[in-house]
Amino acid sequence: MPMHALFLAGWWPTKEYPLNGVFIREHAESISNFSKVTAVYLRSVNKSKSWFDFPSTIKQETIVINENLEVLIIDVDLKIRKFGVLEKQLTRLISQIIKRYEITKPINLIHINVLTTLLNTIVVKRSNQFNLPIVITEHSSFYHTEIFQLPKDEIEIKKLELIKLLNMPKVKFLLPVSVQLGNVLIENYLVPSNKIKNIPNVANDVFLSNYIVNNSKTSSIVIFAAAIWNPPKNPILFFELLVLLKQKKFDLYKLLKINWAGEGIQIREVKQFVNEKLKDLNITFFGFLTKTEIAYQMSCADFLVHPTDAENLPCIIIEGLCSGLPILSSKVNGNLELIDDSNGLLYEAKNLIDFYEKFMEMISNINKFDKAKIAVNSRGKYNSLAIGKQIVDVYSKTI
Predict the structure, then answer these.
(1) Do 214 and 237 meet the contact criterion of CB atoms below 8 Å apart?
(2) Which residues make beta-bridge pairs with 76?
(3) How far, in Å, CA of 324 to CA of 201, rounded?
(4) Is the alpha carbon torsion for 196, 197, 198, 202 positive or negative?
């Protein structure tokens, strides 16, 4: 049976926010190798200023990615927020999209990506109205991290809400990107283990090319980092490590070349820290880089550092491994599924001394890692075709 997935994206990259949900788009692209995909992203819900928008106006922008993948970007201008108006409007919108394809290419299933976003919560809540099986891919650390940042009296309420949604009859499979997140869903949210299928994130094709990995004999040690620098990332811990290194081993400190990419709310603090305490550090702040530019920087690096206090299955680590880079990151969540003695080192999160010791161990053993083997092993696991096939195999069991 020809497959056509209505792919509801909790996050999606746009011109305004090009880094937002890139990994979700890459999942959609991987599926489009095997199936028709219509992706929908609710970009904004704004309070309407026009008296003529009653009760709301829904605007759609269509983007064609390839012959099997189109994206509908949705903006809602809402005049009335009460009485469930928004929920009814969005439910009607999804019904209309499903009906649009009834004759030509009927939609077989709904694929939710990140349940905890507004549109996706509404669709699962009202799933009986659509009469389609639902698959949920979960990337969010909300289940094991952000939920505990809610006020105490709200945590149990939110947890019960999620248990109900995750176990709705129309939800046939959950596809957490890491085994650890899958275990959280089973243990804390009562999802039956036979509904869990762990499918990881995708490495963009640019990281599967045969870039020449840095084998230069220069004395510099090139370290690369890239992320959206928002919590739970912890970049300051890395720079505190460099302060310690400068005090203890200044000659080694002077050999470092730090290439730092990405944006986020923590970047200002990082730059201020460097300006005050590490003025002589050889560092370049690149800001936003494209995937192709990141792949090039990885080809020039000796290893990747990824300081963070929580993760699911970070794409930057997957991309680094596919580029043949050893990884230095924290011993949290999905990182333990990606990194072992053959391809990197893990430090105890938030522990400066352990981070420093693992950093020194990485420097001492950098030439002992088999970079070609790291790349070959990772490319086979995380390429787009491999991930897309796993997802479509789940589809075939669902429809």
Answers:
(1) no
(2) 45, 58
(3) 17
(4) negative
Angle between helices 384-398 and 371-382 (to 10 degrees): 30
Tokens, residue 149: 């940042």
Q: What are the structure tokens assigned to 288, written together? A: 């936003």
> How far apart are the C-alpha atoms of 186 and 144, rounded to whole Å?
12
Tell me the per-residue pLDDT of 212-271, one tens digit each, with 9 for 90 and over.
555 555 679 999 999 999 999 999 999 999 999 999 999 999 999 999 999 999 999 999
CA–CA separation, 237 and 217 (whole Å): 29
- pLDDT tens-digit map of 299-331: 999 999 999 999 889 999 999 999 999 999 999
- What would you report as the CA-atom Rg of the chain, rounded to the nearest whole angstrom? 23
Please tell me what DSSP assigns to residue 206. G
Nearest CA to 61 out of 86, 35, 43, 87 is that of 43
- 347 forms beta bridges with 330
Query: What is the token pair recorded at 32?
Result: 């489009």
Instruction: Find out whether 56 and 78 touch, Cβ atoms under 8 Å.
Output: yes
How many whole angstroms separate alpha carbon 80 and alpha carbon 91? 16
Lookup: tokens for 9: 């994206």
d(CA 189, CA 174): 12
Dist CA 89 CA 78 (whole Å): 10
H/E stretch holding 42: strand 36-47
Bridge partners (DSSP) of residue 64 are 70
Question: What is d(CA 333, CA 310) in angstroms, rounded to the nearest whole number?
Answer: 7
Q: Enumerate the CATH 3.40.50.2000 domain ranges in the chain, comma separated.
A: 4-202+383-398, 205-381
- Identify the three-state secondary structure at position 124: helix
Quick check: 166 and 115 in contact, CB under 8 A?
yes
Residue 150, number of CB atoms within 10 A of its CB: 14
Give the number of C-alpha atoms closer than 13 A to the C-alpha of residue 343, restricted to the C-beta side: 22
Residue 50: alpha-carbon gap to chain centroid: 37
Q: What is the CATH number of domain 4-202+383-398?
A: 3.40.50.2000
Please give the CATH topology (third level) of the domain spanning 205-381: Rossmann fold (3.40.50)
